[in-house]
Amino acid sequence: MAQCIGSKIKYFRMKKNMTLEELAEGIVSISYLSKIERNGVDSNAKIIKMLCDRLGIHPESIADSEVERLAWKWFKELLNEDLFAAHHTYMHIENQMEKLIDAKLNWLVEIHELYYFILSNQKQKAKKKYAYLEHAAPHFDELELFYWLKFSALYGKMNANYNLSFDLLLQAEQKIPISIANHQEELNDIYQKIALVALELYYTYHATVYAEKALAYYQNTYHLKRCAICHIIIAVGYHRMHDSKDALESFHFAKKIANNHNYTDILIDCDLQIGHYYLKKEETKEAIIYYMSSYQLSESRLTRAELEAAIGLMKSYFLQNQLDEAKVWYRRANDLVEKLEKETLYLVYEVKVYYYLIYGFDESFEELMIKEVLPYIEEREMYVFSVVYYRITADYYYQKRKYKVAADYYRQINKSLDEIMKRDNY
User: What's one GO MF term for it (predicted)?
Assistant: First the structure.
């Protein structure tokens, strides 16, 4: 995005929530100010100074190589997901936007701020920043567009819009500039993020292929934490392809790395995924062991992993027909639901639906499914969850002898499965 004094004036006017009329009053006409902001006219120095004085900025360019260095350092820290270091660097550049504009880095910093807010779980700030950047996006240059696609994809992931996230990450993969700093690191970061989102969507082929690409790079660069994440993705892929031996071997690799290097977050996720592995095989005793380990490691962190582990324990005890224990874990999961924010809404619905499975159905179940759960998953095209919830809804109507309604929902299950296969193989 080209930068000069007009762009600088427009940027700070918008930052201060000033209209063209408010800034122009007593200095120039609104139409003339608009031309200045579009860099469409050479204005005299006196007018520029008056406008800059009103905005509290300097009309001349302020060179500061240290601010430039800190900005690029911050970008690298965010790429490495080193939140502690990124927070420290951000404190130094947060109020240096005028210098960053003069260095033509302001939009890159603004776009990276979106990712910083996502990583640091500042959801309201991320929402506000996303809305602000969305208006500027049509004017981004090649590098800015790449980062915008990447970070808006991760914003979508944060809000459980996984299909949107997946599509944007694929676009980012295609748009990555050859000249970008840390090209291979950026590219393989995209590969891993595509794999993680594909895993959520049950696109097993995409998840496995992209994870294997990233794993080859991270093994060569000795990035062990990223290797462990790839092994978990690949393990889940093997399990979904009914290859239990290779699945357990990949889980073992991930756990070994996590244990050797004290990667607690990796251990939490690995034990959680192994719990899912055994639950799907209906080997509930083993599932409970791993869910419990994941829950204990994540307890009181108020994270999605803690909630997922509690839900896994609730489901495992339900399958064992140990309803008293299932109720204990339902209550714990429900307590977490009340403390976590709405980006985990599909997990919230999982807890609500299991209330009826554990405690018994009443008429409010139909209202929950038809007015809340099914519209939510259909809007987001969450086909894996739709398979589960269509089946539960179909079984409910079948038990009530509403066979025609039940049959409609059973048909929806096959449509969702077809959609998963079609999208994973395009």
Answer: DNA binding
| Residues 6 or more apart whose Cβ sits within 8 Å of residue 67 | 93, 96, 99, 100, 103
Contacts of 279 (CB under 8 A, 6+ apart): 287, 291, 312, 315, 316, 319
Q: Are residues 292 and 353 in the same domain?
A: yes
Q: Of the candidates 60, 87, 104, which is a domain's last residue?
A: 60
pLDDT number for residue 1: 40
Query: Residue 184 and residue 173: Cα distance in Å, rounded?
Result: 12
Closest CA to 188 of 143, 154, 158, 223: 223
One domain for residues 11 and 41: yes
Number of structural domains, the chain? 3
Kindly state whether residue 190 falls inside one of the protein's structural domains: no
Provide the residue range defining the domain that includes 422. Answer: 361-426
8 A C-beta contact, residue 259 and residue 222: no
Distance from C-alpha of 31 to C-alpha of 36, rounded to nearest angstrom:
9
Whether residues 372 and 320 fall in one domain: no
What is the distance in angstroms between the CA of the first residue and the CA of the last residue of the chain?
A: 34
Regarding pTM above 0.90, the answer is: no
pLDDT band at 134 (very low <50, low <70, confident <90, very high): very high
Distance (Å, whole) CA 291 – CA 275? 5
What distance in Å separates the CA atoms of residue 194 and residue 170, rounded to the nearest whole number?
Answer: 7
What the block records as the tokens of 379 is: 């809007």
Whether 302 maps to a domain, the answer reads: yes
